């Protein structure tokens, strides 16, 4: 327990001290969203119709950008080997690391999202649906993404490959999340979509730590 | 029984099995494809709605079904490789991956040509088409992850994890895109009890599916034999098996070694393994080839 706590504190401290690196995906997120009104035209109805999807696509892309941080530094400086040697099971350390990473990347995203909802002319109901889907969907991205990061961490040019591997896997999440927002825009209930996303999340929380731990061992060779 | 199955983890035993199976698969593939395609394209009756253009079903449906089947086979091989540490399972996995990717591409391509006269468009964001496209991306992901690693044992394990993640995802993707949008006609032959296709159209289709399956098996077996030989080039069993052919292999290795040596002379930073090759650059080529083979052996 103490070990897990220290992993958590170390990751939080590292993320906090490398704030610039934390800010970059966030700025990317805002910039991508700014591009859409410029490219498609600023009419409020159009923006409202595509808004939920645009925010979700931008969120996935920006999370992919920051995702490499999850294990890269630990792999480079050898902490990862120490985690593997420690008596604490690796998959538990992995869970803590993934959750810390999620926390440090998603809180800024949440803080900035009201502004983006204004940019894209989302109604209040759509905004609530967006928040709920982000809350359930982004940990799913982190857990599944962790597998990809663990597989590519040993490669020199893993960044693009990571996106190639992961984007197809996120498609179901994107479909359910945007359909929830669309339902919200028509004032329809969207519990079923949320329930499916939550189900996928629980499934991935149960299985992906094992897959991540195995992949890290493969990468460490 | 278990011990007998496990013996195929050895490359030489797997190679022997490939040799035995290859001709059977080739025979079934050639006869199946010839009978099925000639019957389907030439003699099956016209569709009352789609006319002659429905005949592409004899290419489209087998490739679409078997693209999925090949992915499942790949994922099962990955599971076997990861759980029981079979080297040959990873070889099979990477042998079938490009074959499956090409099948996926064929099904998309023929589907597009079918869609043009039927739906009036080359591409539509329909559930089945989208799912098939994502399947192609999953295949490409596994292949590119495999090629990104230099150590092929490590590459096999990494790509295996990815293949298994993908196979868990395929039903989810299918279900989600189906919910998202559907235009594609429903499945024709899987309806239990009463298929909605006339028997004289169905039979050539089934023969085509069999022929395609055997064809995939045939190509995979040939690719797997190549993979086994490439990875085990330095092992004694290869030399024993290919008493004469090995001379050729040696000649190839020689050529490689020479190319490497010149490349190394210009390269700046090199691992120790290359350093030895460098030192031998002026020595006789045969010794050089051996050194190189050893290096490769350590890597695989």
From TrEMBL, chain A:
Q: List the GO terms this entry assigns under cellular component, sorted alphabetically.
A: plasma membrane
MF terms (GO), sorted A to Z: heme transmembrane transporter activity
A Pfam family reported for this protein in Swiss-Prot or TrEMBL? CcmB
InterPro entries named in the record: Cyt_c_biogenesis_CcmB, Cyt_c_CcmB_bac
User: What is the membrane topology here?
Assistant: Multi-pass membrane protein
Biological process (GO) annotations? Answer: cytochrome c biosynthetic process; cytochrome complex assembly
Q: Where are the transmembrane segments?
A: 26-44, 50-67, 88-120, 126-153, 160-181, 193-216
Q: Does the keyword Nucleotide-binding apply?
A: no
Q: What is its main location?
A: membrane
Signal peptide positions on this chain: none
Q: What does this protein do?
A: Required for the export of heme to the periplasm for the biogenesis of c-type cytochromes.
Q: Report the family membership.
A: Belongs to the CcmB/CycW/HelB family.
State the protein's name. Heme exporter protein B
Recorded source organism is Brumicola pallidula DSM 14239 = ACAM 615
Automatic annotation (TrEMBL), chain B:
Predominant location: membrane
Residue spans crossing the bilayer: 21-44, 56-82, 89-109, 129-149, 161-181, 201-221
> What GO terms are given for molecular function?
heme binding; heme transmembrane transporter activity
- Please name the InterPro entries in this protein's record: Cyt_c_assembly, Cyt_c_biogenesis_CcmC, Cyt_c_biogenesis_CcsA/CcmC
Question: What is the purpose of this protein?
Answer: Required for the export of heme to the periplasm for the biogenesis of c-type cytochromes.
* Cellular component per GO, a single term: plasma membrane
Q: Which GO terms describe its biological process?
A: cytochrome complex assembly
- Please provide the record's keywords in A-Z order: Cell inner membrane, Cell membrane, Cytochrome c-type biogenesis, Membrane, Transmembrane, Transmembrane helix, Transport
Q: Which PANTHER family match?
A: CYTOCHROME B_B6 PROTEIN-RELATED, HEME EXPORTER PROTEIN C
Q: Name one Pfam family in it.
A: Cytochrom_C_asm
Please state what the protein is called. Answer: Heme exporter protein C
Please report the record's description of how this protein sits within the membrane: Multi-pass membrane protein
Which family does the record assign?
A: Belongs to the CcmC/CycZ/HelC family.
Q: Where does it live in the cell?
A: Cell inner membrane; Membrane
Q: Where is the Cytochrome c assembly protein domain?
A: 28-184
